[in-house]
Specification:
The complex is a heterodimer.
Chain A lengths: L1 H6 L3 H39 L16 H8 L4 H28 L6 H13 L2 H15 L6 H24 L5 H8 L4 H29 L3 H6 L6 H11 L4 H32 L1
Helix pairs in contact in A: 2-12, 3-12, 4-7, 4-9, 4-11, 5-7, 7-9, 8-9, 9-12
Chain B lengths: L1 H15 L1 H28 L3 E3 L2 E3 L5 H5 L3 H34 L4 H12 L6 H12 L4 H8 L14 H25 L3 H9 L4 H12 L1 H16 L3 H6 L7 H10 L3 H27 L4 H9 L1
Antiparallel strand pairs in B: 1-2
Helix pairs in contact in B: 2-14, 4-8, 4-11, 8-11, 9-10, 11-14, 13-14
The chains are: A mainly alpha, B mainly alpha.
Amino acid sequence: MNTLAIDHPAVRPTRTQLGDWTAWTVMAKWGGLLFIFLIYFPLAWLALMSISERPLSGIPLPLTMDNYRALVDDTRWVAPFSISLLIAVFVGIVSAIAATLVGRHLPNAKRSGLKLLLCVIPLFVPGMSMGAALFIVFRAMLGLKLGYWSIIAGHFIWAFPFGLLVVLVLTSRFDHRLVEAAEDLGASKLRTFLDIELPILRPGIVGAGLFGFLLSFNEVLRTMFLRGTSTTMPIYNWTMAASQQSQVPIIFALATIILLVTLPLLAGVFWVLYARIDKS
Amino acid sequence: MAAVSRSALSKSLSRLRPASNTLVNLYFVLWFCLVIIPLLVLFSFSFFETKSFVTTYTPTLNTWLSLLDSGRLTVSLRTLRIALTVTLIEFLIAFPFALWLAKGGVAKSTQAIILALLTIPFFLDLSSRIIIWRSILSENGLISHLLVESGLTSGPVDWLLYNEWAVHFGMLVTYFPTMVLPIYMAISIIDDALIQASADLGASRKDTLLRIIVPLSLPGILAGVILTLGPALAAWIEPSMLGGGFVNLLSNSVESAYSALRYPVVAALSSFVMLMLAILVVALAILARRFGSLGAVFSTLRS
């Protein structure tokens, strides 16, 4: 037995391990894909149930457009929707600008690791804790009246790290010889930035802005603490879903519309980002 | 020669943008005031207490001691148990999946699509994503309907919703991407040559996994645990929408303290979540040191 194993040290064990390994690989693959399915199946189901006569039942049939008609008739969602849209646009623009500013600075900065850590801390702080912390400073400590401004502050803190990471993907590979060449050829700083840096960084900046927009548009936990008396779209969804069953069909319809706008937008961002990264 | 020209280059670069540097430094100061100071204030606020709806600003441990009250302690322990279970299951599914995705010979374009599919959920409204599970899991929902139709069960199934299992399930689906993505990033930058060398030197696949891949992906595993455990400890939407009032977690305690204007309790509970997170991460890091030192990993990654 022993001599046999020594004579063929590699053959037998490798074959059996390979067999085990294949089983593991299959399990690993399908386990993860199952979870991705579990993430996206509810979205498809949501869209289907939004055109169902009985949205909370197990069968989508019979189909109807009543929920969308109810959505048009019921105007209570319009105000929170527009407010969310405005806040999200603002947060998106500010995150894009801030991410560009810091993203250009970090790759050549002193102690860039520490600075990066400082910037991405909000990713690691649970939304509830960050919301409570800002609430206590703004309301309990400083006694300010909460409103749109505090929602924007909370959303910006959440959105900025994502935007920064997206911009950093491009700035950390940026070739500074391009800027020097422009300087040598006598271009002004503004020209250099507009004609050289901006076109190269544009996908990252646009990505940062869109991420900021979407993160803000869908934010719940921080908004709950920072909203004062104002209501955003996700808060409206949340209170309606929690308290009034009759409102749920309208929420399904609204959520479906938002998904139909959001998903292509995101797919576009990722397509541009990955295409650009593969090229560079 | 090269070193000299590089330092000269960086000097000329820093001279180029003094204006933008002041702006960036100003931004960092502002950011510090907006992020770090509130977290410190949150922590210090937990050492105050509330008497007849007014916060008294004298240092005391009463608020922290009140967390040990029987009711709140049960809630804290339950939250900890559920969050740890979710994180563990998440890891067991995410690590093999990330390994397959990064080193399993998956085409670049497939990788990009899967990564995009895993990133997109961050930007979708969580409450509508969670509430739809009600129409799938409830007594007259999809699964119950299918089970009855197929004759597998005699009556409607009512144990799929409004209990702890439903909360676990909702959290597992929500936090899967936060566990996969950091682990994937850590594994994907491991040099294939290292894995090949390990195989060439006669290590079994198990040895390669435990002595090369796991130690080198530790930073990713730690990040994944932080990013999953944190939100799981503070989970708000899943327990209230899928627990139906039967599963009280820390977020419910925070909500009731918040509406009762007991801000020091809110502060203490929120700090408690972050403390738990910190303690568990430090414990994991110490445990990880048995595999290989984290510092060595970072220096390998840097080179």
